């Protein structure tokens, strides 16, 4: 439904003034320089959790969107909408998190805006960030570039962020065993691109909609078919248990520190070696491949050997988390 709203209403009305390609960042040509630009708004609930808070997510999410386009993130803007009565101590805690995450990612805050609305007009605090990065490598990552035989890699455990936040919100008891994976991954992406170059077809930050949505977008954009193996998916037993209890599919759960890469088969080992050198991607694994099949489809071999279609999720499995 979000895709329909964006493509069928927003982009349609904006018409020729919209030049994006529905990727995580727009790549723009300036005299003598290619840059990437992205923007995002953050409405996280709860605001604080084990592994981060809304400030960390805002910086890390924007940095990751730039990084997966092949850019080196440099600058961020920070816009804040505060609800009247929001605790100053919480606001300062969030700003410290923004500062520390930006410093760790090597980016600078260059501009911002602050608005205060009346009590009841916002959910405590909303953040908006815009990121700018430069493209230093002569490559163009795109979901349209998939080829038969390419390997699909995910960089970490699936679903941890959603399960942690939902468990903390609802008091389910899993929040002490499954923590959010929120992290800035620009250094991880840079090492993979250094190791594999143009053999990396595309990278995507696996956030809202989860891996199932990302792979459907890949398959549709490239008119290819993707085959997954359920036994290869990196999923913590606790996350699987919580998802089963809640009646949700881990394939569609949001992550905040997990990437999906599609890499040529002869450079897959090099990509995994680079990923395994970082704590944030130590559990990276090949989970599927691009195959001959009905264009635009994603299929998965289940643990019992059966085949199922991984469709685009229609509607929402869970209440809004971020």
From TrEMBL:
One of its GO terms (biological process) is protein maturation. Residues 23-134 form the PurM-like N-terminal domain. Gene3D superfamilies: PurM-like C-terminal domain, PurM-like, N-terminal domain. It holds the Pfam family AIRS. InterPro entries: HypE, PurM-like_C_dom, PurM-like_C_sf, PurM-like_N, PurM-like_N_sf. Residues 148-299 form the PurM-like C-terminal domain. Belongs to the HypE family. This is Hydrogenase expression/formation protein HypE.
